[in-house]
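Reopening this one. Same input as before:
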Amino acid sequence: MSENVPTTDETSTTGAPRSTGVSRRNFVTGLAVAGLGGLVVGGGAGYALAPKDSGGSSSGGGGGDTSPIKIGSVSPVTGPYSGDGQEMTRGQELAIDAINALGGLAGRKLELVVGDVSDLSPENYVQVAQRLVNQEKVSAIFSGYTTNDSSEYSIYADAGVPVFHLNTLQANVDYVTKNKITNIYEGCPTEIWYGKGFVPLMQAWIADGSWTPSSKTAAIITSNDPYSISIAQAFKAAVEGIGWTVPIYEEVTAPYADWGPQLAKIRANPPGLIYMTDYIPGDLASFAKQFATSPTQSLLYQQYGPSIPEYLQLAGEAGYGVVWSTTVGTLPDKMGQEFLAAYKAKYNSEAGLSQAGGQYDMVHLWAQTAAMAGDPNDFTKVNQLLKGVIYRGVSGTYKWISDTELAVAPYPDLVNDPSLAMPHLTYQIQGGKQVPVYPAPYASGTFQPPPWFK
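Same output, byte for byte:
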């Protein structure tokens, strides 16, 4: 790990990392869990104190109620997206284990109720939402993906239950803002920052001599879903804005395995950069393997999918040299390393670098805020407190862009302050290892020309 990577596990009252002052263990007295991170509400130090027993009873946490507090997980635990779904539920489980080990929330244990959204269909999401809200009566909901058209959002909005997701879609945030929904939070920057953020980085590599493109051309390959297309279009506009051209633009229907037609076009007219916005690890791994049989002098960027362990298992050495990024990723600092170690100890496998840490953080963020509210089922109060949260977790800092735009701001793309925004991380696979190469202070390595470059 690089010396410039922060290793502090403490947070100031402004959310900025610091090396002295209140430790995380003291900072969350009453809900103290090593590795939790720091919570700041409204700019002042917020202590997540479990409410004291007043002798009464409520649905949320005071009095003699010792029944479990149910929280919902909306995750694709079966089907083609199950690799990512496993990361989601494992991150949630680790957070619950840590909280329950020290007495739970307000003296009550947390219990995870999983709703499988295997095919990612709107109908599936609506059914799961109705079950969790109306039958299970959960106190909070955590999801990796949601529908692209926000089909299930009205169910959550009517219930008022806090919902946290990592769907990374600007359209979801816009829907929440337009409909004045106050309880659905996107725990990461949206997808538009993938395309916007990579162009300045590639320009920096060109300027410092790290990369000399074979041509100022880019091949863009995207799956035909709104998320992937949005990233592709944002990148196309940004790269054309610096004078590059895009002679190859291909849309495929995911999941997709035979990349022969796309690779034929690439080999006939080799671009300086291949920019892929399909996010399924199996799709991206199969492209990397087929590309490696006769590679062009093109830098290969594959968005998000390589963060999932399944990718390297499938791609093997064909993935070496690939560049990828995520707007929510486990940081290579002390907190991140402790989380990754805990994940490996529990599951005997390496964690992915995106969903697991993000889900772990969001459960903790909610639990600390619910404890401050005094009753996790007082949704009005919990949501009110959540608006002022600044939380430092294993994936960085969670702070909503505004009280109405309930998404996390990206660093350095929008906010040039890592204590107030989540880093948009870029990795390169080097010798089988995932090496963060951007941005500072989180980078522990530098970009290297991929092994297929001559």
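So the earlier flakiness isn't reproducible anymore. For the record, Residues 192-326+424-438 form a domain with the Rossmann fold fold (CATH 3.40.50.2300).
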